[in-house]
Every structure is written in structure tokens, then in C-alpha cells.
Specification:
alpha/beta; six-stranded parallel β-sheet; 10 helices; 15 strands
Length: 323
């Protein structure tokens, strides 16, 4: 089978399209004929091995799994001996071990049946970013009707889902993005848009926000807290920004350590892959309450170009690799 393979950590220039052996599913796994794969920051982290602390799980000197890609959608080819929830022919989406390939394995509890209303490309754009947004706006951070929500990085993969979810919950949403993404963010439900190239979230802004979801990793914690209501909730998403070793996790750790001593609720979110969240996203998509926003699609052979565009082009929504 053909796959995008990487032998050492580094840039997208190290990625190669090769013929490799088709994987064999373990007892608790499903083998899927991939139709599309999502391209998000998680792919860049897998590719570069950064932040370096992540290499404890990814592989210290080189990637444990040389095939790139993490989320996607396709059709079940075979199931392991202990798998009862899926059968060959089922259309599924979720998290895979190397989704930039013609076939990929997935643990049965990391996938779900594909939303019937979505194409494979749309479904591939949903798992990682959708679950992250869903988990960011859950529990104490779930906005109530009429509350103000600020989504930083609103035109990106996670941000586009966060805007839709917060709007669905009845919040008044303000999105922060570049000028090219403003129309998209408004179309997803944002009432206000802040162009970060012209102003910051605290510039001439009389509003404070009940919930802030920060996907960008660029603003210092004191700036974010000034934009938050006295008892508001800040959710720092992922490990963007920061140092090469810890990435943005150091800022998130400072927020978590400070939170017990102040009235504001400061959270650091490293999203988890959960089948229950995939099922929630499937339900929301089939009801038309969330829709994947796709910037553009690339064929498998051009996956390196997709990753390059991710880091340099500020995509509006998700990028997808078709297989």
C-alpha cells in the first residue's frame, strides 16, 4: 500500500510517499481502507517531535510509527477477533495509527460510525479538532445562554468548531482571527470579530468574557486574565507556542497552578480521544448543528504541501488529505 512515511523527526521535506506493507489489526483493532485524513497541528507535532517532552511517547530518537496522520475516515476492511461493534463495509471516522495511508489500524474504541450527512472528507476533518472544541466547552467552561465567549484562533480547525458550539449553547461569540478568516467566522455564528493584525483583545474593548478559548498560544497569561470576567473561565488549548522542550505546556501549567488561588477558573486542555465524544459529534453533525469548515483538500502525494500550508498559510478551517 502507499503511505506518507518519515524516518526521522524534522520538517515536511523528510516526508516520502512509499509502498509499505499493509498493517494487520490486533484483536482489539479495526483495519480501515482510508478515504481521507485530517491535517491539524497534531500532525506537525508528530512530524517534528516537538515539544521535545512528547518524544517520551512518540519515540525518543525517531518516530515509533513512521506513517504520519492521526485522524481520518474510511471504510472498514477487517476487524480483530475481539471487536464486536464494527464489521467490514462500515463507514467510520476517528483516530488512526497513521492515517496518511491507503490502510490504517485503529483501536475499536477510538472510532465511530461516520455521520451519514457528511462526506468522507468532511468526516476526516471532524475527530481531533471537533473533540478538542467539545472538551474545551464542557463542564465548568460550558457557556450559558447570553454569556460572552471569546474564541482566539477562531478561523482554525478547533476554532471553527468552538464558534459553532458556543453559538449553539446560546452564547454571544467573539472570534479572533486574521482578516481573511473574518467572513467565515461570522458565517459560523460569531457576533463580533477581532482582527488580530489591527487590534488586541484588550484594545478599546469594554467587554470582558465569561469564557475564553485560546487556541493560539501567543498571548501571556496576564493579558488573557484581563479580558476575563472576575469569575470567568479560561481554557488554554494544546501545546502551541512556548519553548521547544515544553511548548505551550509551560504556560498551561502556570495557569493550572494559579487557578486554586484566584476566583477565575484557569484550565489547560490536552484533549483525549474518546468514542463518546465522537458519538456526540456524529449526532451534532447529523442534526446540522455543526458543519466542518474545509479550507482545501490535497491528494495523498501532496501531504507535505498540506502541512506546509498549515504552518504558513493560516488556513480557514481544516485541511484534508484525500486518499
Amino acid at each position: 500500500m502507499k503511505a506518507i512515511v518519515q524516518d526521522a523527526y524534522g520538517s515536511e521535506d523528510l516526508l516520502e510517499l512509499r509502498d509499505i506493507e499493509r498493517p494487520v489489526p490486533r484483536d482489539d483493532e479495526v483495519l480501515v481502507e482510508m478515504r481521507a485524513a485530517g491535517v491539524g497541528p497534531e500532525v506537525w507535532h508528530l512530524m517534528t517531535g516537538r515539544p521535545y517532552v512528547a518524544r517520551a511517547a512518540l519515540g525518543l530518537r525517531k518516530p515509533k510509527n513512521p506513517v504520519r496522520g492521526w485522524d481520518g475516515a474510511g471504510r472498514v476492511e477487517a476487524v480483530g477477533a475481539k471487536v464486536t461493534g464494527f464489521k467490514p463495509g462500515d463507514e467510520v471516522f476517528g483516530n488512526f495509527e497513521g492515517s496518511f495511508a491507503e490502510y490504517a489500524r485503529a483501536k475499536a474504541d477510538k472510532i465511530a460510525l461516520k455521520p451519514a450527512t457528511l462526506t468522507f472528507e468532511q468526516a476526516a476533518a471532524l475527530p481531533v479538532s471537533g473533540m478538542t472544541a467539545l472538551q474545551a466547552l464542557s463542564d465548568k467552561s460550558r457557556p450559558q445562554p447570553g454569556q460572552r465567549v471569546l474564541v482566539i484562533g477562531a478561523s482554525g480547525g478547533v476554532g471553527t468548531y468552538a464558534v459553532q458550539l458556543a453559538t449553539m449553547y446560546g452564547a454571544e461569540v467573539t472570534g479572533v482571527c486574521g482578516p481573511a478568516g473574518a467572513d467565515l467566522v461570522r458565517s459560523l455564528g460569531a457576533t463580533h470579530v477581532i482582527d488580530y493584525t489591527r487590534e488586541d483583545i484588550t484594545d478599546n474593548n469594554p467587554h470582558r468574557y465569561d469564557v475564553i478559548v485560546d487556541n493560539a498560544g501567543l498571548r501571556p497569561l496576564p493579558v488573557l486574565r484581563r479580558a476575563l470576567t472576575p469569575r470567568g473561565t479560561l481554557v488554554i488549548v494544546g501545546g502551541e507556542g512556548g519553548s521547544g522542550f515544553f511548548g505551550g505546556m509551560s504556560r498551561g501549567l502556570r495557569a493550572v497552578l494559579l487557578s486554586p488561588f484566584i476566583a477565575q477558573n484557569l484550565r489547560n486542555l490536552i484533549s483525549l480521544s474518546r468514542q463518546e465524544d465522537l458519538l456526540s459529534l456524529k449526532d451534532l453533525a447529523e442534526k446540522g448543528q455543526i458543519t466542518p469548515a474545509i479550507d482545501r483538500s490535497y491528494p495523498l502525494s501532496e501531504a507535505p504541501a498540506a502541512i506546509r500550508h498549515l504552518k504558513q498559510g493560516h488556513p480557514k478551517g481544516k485541511l484534508v488529505v484525500t486518499i
